[in-house]
Design goal:
alpha/beta
């Protein structure tokens, strides 16, 4: 049974579990909004810089969540979220809102909702759309599904991390299903950018000429510009890591298989991500899939 959601103050205390690219960025957005933030990461050194921004960095997950109104998770996958909740269990109290922002897929969201209910938490499935920069700017789009009272209680948090909150439904997994569709589009786009740059290189075409022809037209996109610029400059600082993109692609393929849908492009993207990861590009930006585009026997040039 879902716990009742107690009244939440206008400035709720927020526990952020996970201080990676997205978790740390969202924590800073919360701090800019004037909210009290307690941050925890399994590797404390990752969370430590948040202390300079005004967060309380805790040694344990239980310490972070004790007395918080909202517990925000921003971790790699459902397994990591479940482990963090177990680590935090001694500090949790009935009725806290669990704002679960990681991409875990619909099955993962349902399982985490069950785990949350066992702990007396009220689960809100809240995957975010956006990468490092919008997370740093507090301009993410947050997809939410869950009890209306819990979403309302988390309102100040949602307003701080995002420019838009989209209600995807009431049930656990509703928001996560929508997130997978959006991520399928992103993954297809990044594969398209990578392959066009691969082909230009292979054919001896100046990539600048390719980009110039598309400039300002209906085929031009900001995403094409940003990812092409990253490759051409050799700056693969991750805004969305390739290993995370591979994890999401696998979630997409699993969900599609369960729904009787065949996704040939996603399967091909997974294969490219796997090759790039095997070559040591997993922690780089997902556009490092570009490096999987050379045929065997050809030098990178």
């Amino acid at each position: 049974m879902t716990s009742a959601v107690p009244a939440s103050p206008q400035r709720p205390v927020v526990a952020v579990l996970g201080a990676g690219i997205m978790g740390a960025a969202m924590a800073r957005s919360l701090l800019r909004a004037g909210l009290e933030v307690r941050a925890w990461n399994r590797t404390r050194a990752k969370a430590a810089p948040l202390a300079e921004d005004g967060a309380t960095v805790t040694a344990t997950a239980a310490e972070a969540v004790r007395g918080a109104h909202v517990v925000l998770t921003a971790l790699t996958d459902a397994t990591a979220v479940a482990a963090a909740l177990t680590a935090a269990s001694e500090g949790l109290h009935r009725g806290q809102v669990l704002l679960q922002t990681s991409t875990v897929g619909p099955d993962g969201a349902v399982e985490l909702a069950r785990r949350a209910a066992d702990l007396g938490l009220v689960h809100v499935d809240a995957p975010v759309v956006g990468t490092r920069q919008p997370a740093e700017e507090g301009t993410l789009t947050v997809l939410v599904s869950g009890p209306a009272a819990a979403v309302e209680a988390a309102g100040p948090v949602l307003d701080a991390i995002g420019r838009r909150t989209v209600r995807a439904g009431e049930e656990p997994g509703d928001a996560s299903r929508l997130k997978l569709v959006i991520n399928a589009w992103v993954i297809n786009m990044v594969g398209g950018v990578a392959e066009c740059l691969n082909l230009a290189e292979g054919l001896g075409v100046d990539p600048g000429a390719f980009l110039d022809v598309l400039a300002g037209g209906p085929l031009d996109t900001g995403y094409l510009r940003a990812k092409s610029a990253a490759v051409l400059a050799g700056d693969l600082t991750p805004s969305f890591a390739l290993s995370t993109a591979l994890k999401d692609t696998r979630l997409i393929l699993d969900a599609a298989a369960g729904a009787g849908v065949r996704l040939d492009l996603a399967a091909a993207s997974a294969a490219r991500f796997e090759r790039a990861e095997a070559d040591g590009h997993g922690e780089e930006d997902m556009i490092a899939t570009y490096y999987a585009g050379r045929a065997p026997g050809h030098d990178a040039g």
